[in-house]
């Protein structure tokens, strides 16, 4: 395993661990999700560069576009919950209540 593969795997696993264990604030959960997506983007980009195939060269940009759309939607949810509940703590959110 190269040092680059190890760093990408460890980045993804640390972001996943942060998402699983530190879910007190919605912003920290969104940052962990963004870290996971960036690790996947970098690994997909390096895989496409090593394979040197023009067929897969568009897939990192598509993934980055979906990641940016997901980050925008997450920040919109963060702003909406902060305005309605006054905080971004996950414990105060009741998702089943209308």
TrEMBL record:
<keyword id="KW-0496">Mitochondrion</keyword>
<dbReference type="InterPro" id="IPR039428">
    <property type="entry name" value="NUOK/Mnh_C1-like"/>
</dbReference>
<keyword id="KW-0812">Transmembrane</keyword>
<keyword id="KW-1133">Transmembrane helix</keyword>
<keyword id="KW-1278">Translocase</keyword>
<dbReference type="InterPro" id="IPR001133">
    <property type="entry name" value="NADH_UbQ_OxRdtase_chain4L/K"/>
</dbReference>
<keyword id="KW-0999">Mitochondrion inner membrane</keyword>
<dbReference type="Pfam" id="PF00420">
    <property type="entry name" value="Oxidored_q2"/>
</dbReference>
<dbReference type="GO" id="GO:0016651">
    <property type="term" value="F:oxidoreductase activity, acting on NAD(P)H"/>
</dbReference>
<dbReference type="GO" id="GO:0042773">
    <property type="term" value="P:ATP synthesis coupled electron transport"/>
</dbReference>
<keyword id="KW-0472">Membrane</keyword>
<keyword id="KW-0830">Ubiquinone</keyword>
<dbReference type="GO" id="GO:0098803">
    <property type="term" value="C:respiratory chain complex"/>
</dbReference>
<keyword id="KW-0679">Respiratory chain</keyword>
<comment type="similarity">
    <text>Belongs to the complex I subunit 4L family.</text>
</comment>
<keyword id="KW-0813">Transport</keyword>
<keyword id="KW-0249">Electron transport</keyword>
<feature type="transmembrane region" description="Helical">
    <location>
        <begin position="29"/>
        <end position="50"/>
    </location>
</feature>
<dbReference type="GO" id="GO:0030964">
    <property type="term" value="C:NADH dehydrogenase complex"/>
</dbReference>
<dbReference type="GO" id="GO:0008137">
    <property type="term" value="F:NADH dehydrogenase (ubiquinone) activity"/>
</dbReference>
<dbReference type="GO" id="GO:1902495">
    <property type="term" value="C:transmembrane transporter complex"/>
</dbReference>
<feature type="transmembrane region" description="Helical">
    <location>
        <begin position="62"/>
        <end position="81"/>
    </location>
</feature>
<dbReference type="GO" id="GO:0005743">
    <property type="term" value="C:mitochondrial inner membrane"/>
</dbReference>
<protein>
    <recommendedName>
        <fullName>NADH-ubiquinone oxidoreductase chain 4L</fullName>
        <ecNumber>7.1.1.2</ecNumber>
    </recommendedName>
</protein>
<comment type="function">
    <text>Core subunit of the mitochondrial membrane respiratory chain NADH dehydrogenase (Complex I) which catalyzes electron transfer from NADH through the respiratory chain, using ubiquinone as an electron acceptor. Part of the enzyme membrane arm which is embedded in the lipid bilayer and involved in proton translocation.</text>
</comment>
<keyword id="KW-0520">NAD</keyword>
């Amino acid at each position: 395993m190269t040092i680059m593969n190890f760093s990408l795997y460890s980045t993804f696993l640390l972001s996943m661990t942060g998402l699983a264990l530190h879910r007190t604030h919605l912003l920290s959960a969104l940052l962990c999700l963004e870290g996971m997506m960036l690790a996947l983007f970098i690994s997909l980009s390096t895989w496409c560069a090593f394979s040197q195939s023009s067929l897969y060269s568009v897939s990192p940009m598509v993934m980055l576009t979906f990641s940016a759309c997901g980050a925008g939607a997450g920040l919109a949810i963060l702003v909406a919950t902060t305005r309605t509940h006054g905080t971004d703590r996950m414990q105060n959110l009741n998702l089943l209540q209308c």
